[in-house]
Amino acid sequence: MTTSAPAAAPPHAKPAPKRGIRRAHRGEGRLAAFLLSPTLLVLALVIGYPLVSALRESLYQRGEGLDANGFVISGEHFVGLRNYIDAFTGANGSRFWNAFGNTTFFTITTVALETVIGLAMALIMHHALRGRAFLRASILVPWAVPTAVSGLLWRWIFDANGIANNLLGQQILWSADGWPAKWAVVIADTWKTAPFIGLLTLAGLQLIPAELHEAARVDGANAWTQFRKITLPLIKPALLVAVLFRLLDVLRMFDLPYLLVGNQKYSVQTLSVLAFNEANNLHYGPASAYATLLFLYVVIVAYAFVKILGADLLAGARTRTPARRRRSATRPLAGKGTPA
Amino acid sequence: MSRTRTTWRTSRTAGLAALAVTSALILAGCSSSDTKDETSTSGGGTDRGPITFAVGKDTSGALQKQVDAWNAAHPSEKVTLNELPAAADAQLQQLQQNAQVKSTAFSVLGLDVTWTSEFAAHRWIDPIPASTSTSSLLPAAVESAKYRGTLYSVPWQTNGGLLFYRSDLLTAAGIKTPPTTWHEMQADCAKIKAQPQAKKASCYAGQFDKYEGLVVNFSEAVQSSGGHVFDTNGKPTVDTPQAKTALTWMADAFKDGTIPHEDLTYQEENGRQAFQSGKVIFMRNWPYVWDLANKTDGSSKVTGKFNVAPLPGLDSTGSSTLGGYNLAVSSFTKHKTTAHDFITYLTSDRSERANLLAASTAPTRTALYQDPALQKKFPYLAGLKKSLDTAVARPQAVRYGDVSAAIQDAVYPVLSGRTDPATALASLQDKLTQITSQP
Amino acid sequence: MTTHATDRPSRRASANHSGAAAVLRYFGVAVIVVYCLAPFFWMVVSAFRRPSDQFQLSALPRPWSTANFRAVFKPDVGFGRALLNSLVVAGIATIVTLVIGTVAAYALARLEFRFKNLVAAVIIAISMFPPISIVVPLLKLFTDIKWINTYQAMIVPSLSFALPLAVWYLTSFFRQLPAELEQAAMIDGCTRGQAFRKVILPLAAPGVFTTAIITFIAAWNDFIIALSMVNKKDMQTATVAISRFTGAYGFDQPYGTQMAAGVVVTVPLVLAVLAFQRRIVSGLTAGGLK
């Protein structure tokens, strides 16, 4: 696919105005194809085939009827979009919308909390003078504990007679079907993955030369101004990538609701859990339909996120961006020519 | 926009490949069911060689020892133990996945009692040769190993629910025998809770979290009030007075505090924790609690202060739901004769005795329950046998996962006071009818 | 609540170095450490209880016991071998991800070619499909090509999960670095590759290193793929081995043992990252930034 991609003329591609540049680009295109091909190859092998087979599966139904002797009728039949229509309406409709709502709720709450906490972690790690190694180690711990183990850990912490209720002096039934279960998942997920955002942002912070802050300080900028005018713009690309990938992950959240609360509890059932349950009960068609709908949902959210927040985010993927143009203004060839 | 377009475009070639692969699989499916018929008719052939055994739990290492002994005696038919995860859900998932891709990785399968129908109906397991005798096995366990009257697996380990009760508190309150009915139990609780040392204790605990255990406890309540979740023809019968009585009792017990509110999150281990710390007087649980609650290392507050009895019922002693594991032979494996021989070996008197001794696993061979030496070592054995004699297997539904989910969806809201029993059972009846009736 | 308490002091601290600011800064550090380590502390404490004491709620085990750790390393569990397998899988996945991810990121960040945003979009779109839904098709595929019970059956899926993040993150990182640096190096006679290796890579070290950590841990923690693609005991990874822990009786959950195993897989990882980070970051950035 990599080799064919540059060859086909894209409908939206705009011609490069200068011939010399185009020639230079053709060479770069070849190099780019070479450099990108291993990545695309791996992705095509592992995800390409399963993706296509899931899409196909979602248009079929199989294993539903029994013959006279009680055996499941083998083979499958094409049902068109019925699995999708069933997902939105009918008996499964309420389950789908419930899972959709939960997925959305978890995404909004956990990503918001994780971004704020992760950013705070990064700033504190960056500014900490003593005990920085210890701090870094502590932040790594939640992320490093395998999800299977941390799900179990939180399950016992949130047990009716567990340490959480003991410390709170309350009798909250965290793992019963209801709002406490949602919060239990949010708390456990935030604990585990705020460090992810923290670590990725910290690396971005480390790129900022200390002189910048020094200069700003000399100019009399206060801490908040420095943060807003210097720190935030410079860590924005790293932070946005971190948040974007958290979004993608949370939208597909599976382990925590499953392990911590249970897969039959509607208050925490996410789209992934729903798809998993359907597959486990051998309803492959509906399971694939749910997975595909979830995929589309993720695509839409990611697209919106990039469009709304991420002018800089796709900087690497854009042909040219204002930021790039500004920075490489001294370069003789770049900066002109290709449209933004 | 353009992004999705490429995804599709790049996928199209892969799509052709996928189609090719899938059609190949369908073909393979047909041919494999043909070969299956051959082997099942030629049952006692010489299809021998190395096999594997996929099972979830080798809790004590006893199983590995038995496998080693088999391997020493059968050097050309060696068995490899393939341990599956401990969680039943994960085991089922692994077995289903391997069956779907017709993998030859697993030969002998350890199936939970509720899975036999699904595996048999999908032709994922072979029938057990008619030469296998089941007369010395527990009848209820044999029932769980059949699909539509044909034996598809051999009962290997079994399990029944018991009523654990605080004998010390009963004696202190002047109660001589454990309760046999729910009302007796509640009356006993009132007497016991009048005493200062048990004022804060709850009366009864079971497994009422929203998971498979809820199905078990609900079925037991229905059976114990004279009803059945499914009749002998496999038709659901939950919209009946008996089922309503059972569910109403459960809901009322939550409402009036007979069962503590937090039992809505209890699985087996939570109940054991509550019982061991002296928080409940009566508890429904499996026999495994016996050893753990009797530990003398200070972890249990009720060591030597409890005993077991059959589950209570509405008018007389109740009935338990059957747990346990059955052994089956995968349709896709090679060396099926060896596989069947190995099942016979594992379900022999000797192997089951070794399992009981090493891991307190309840045997499926009735004779072992009468063994005086074993009875001495496992004082609950007689009580367990009584429970197993009246035990009922869970419904043999091909779509058992759907059946279980439907029951959980219907019962759980009733227990937490969000629906009333009559409405819940009426819609459960419809749902179960829809799941079990075949198009 | 944590956030307000923590990020304010740090900002203030950078502005003035008064005693109050320092106190606030240490307070921020303390809050973060407690936040991250309190649940982990509970995990360690649970691991050091006797298996029969697993319901205890005391702040420290009473009595202490290493029985859970001994259970983890019981010979028939094969946990040592499982750790080694995890190390192989996660290690190779990390190295390969870094190599092919870095070059892909470089191409996206520095080269001009058509379809660039499309390629970037496809790469990230790939990581939008729910992983639980690719297990069965992947199992079919790997069964057909005889990859069951091999390392590559675990490594390649791990790669595909880690690559989108690595490519996108590193691209954003490379874009942050001024192109003039490379151009200067190329004017000095370096080839494009040399300029990248000697100038850009050292500067991007924090990003590369962070990507490595994230990738390694993600691969190390993978469960569902490792569980499905391998059914031989001597090929199982640590997370799969943990899922196979059982109590002595079946229904009893070996909670303490699982926590002990969690400690065993987490602590060396964190220590290794700390040790490596000093060396790698200091080695790469020597003479670079600051």
TrEMBL record, chain A:
Residues 1-21 are annotated as: Disordered. Keywords: Cell membrane, Membrane, Transmembrane, Transmembrane helix, Transport. Its main location: membrane. Residues 100-305 form the ABC transmembrane type-1 domain. The chain crosses the membrane at residues 31-52, 105-125, 137-157, 294-317. It is a multi-pass membrane protein. It comes from the Bacteria. The keyword Transmembrane applies. PANTHER family: BLR7065 PROTEIN, SPERMIDINE_PUTRESCINE TRANSPORT SYSTEM PERMEASE PROTEIN. This is Sugar ABC transporter permease. The lineage of its organism: Bacteria, Bacillati, Actinomycetota, Actinomycetes, Kitasatosporales.
TrEMBL record, chain B:
The keyword Chaperone does not apply. Keywords: Signal, Transport. The keyword Signal applies. Residues 1-28 form the signal peptide. InterPro entries: SBP. Pfam families: SBP_bac_1. Belongs to the bacterial solute-binding protein 1 family. This is ABC transporter substrate-binding protein.
Automatic annotation (TrEMBL), chain C:
It comes from the Bacteria. Residues 83-276 form the ABC transmembrane type-1 domain. Its main location: membrane. It holds the Pfam family BPD_transp_1. The keyword Transmembrane helix applies. The chain crosses the membrane at residues 21-45, 82-106, 118-139, 151-170, 199-220, 255-276. It is a multi-pass membrane protein. Keywords: Cell membrane, Membrane, Transmembrane, Transmembrane helix, Transport. It is found in: Cell membrane. InterPro entries: BP-dep_ABC_trans_perm (IPR050901), MetI-like (IPR000515), MetI-like_sf (IPR035906). Belongs to the binding-protein-dependent transport system permease family. PANTHER family: INNER MEMBRANE ABC TRANSPORTER PERMEASE PROTEIN YCJP, MALTOSE TRANSPORT SYSTEM PERMEASE-RELATED. This is Carbohydrate ABC transporter permease.
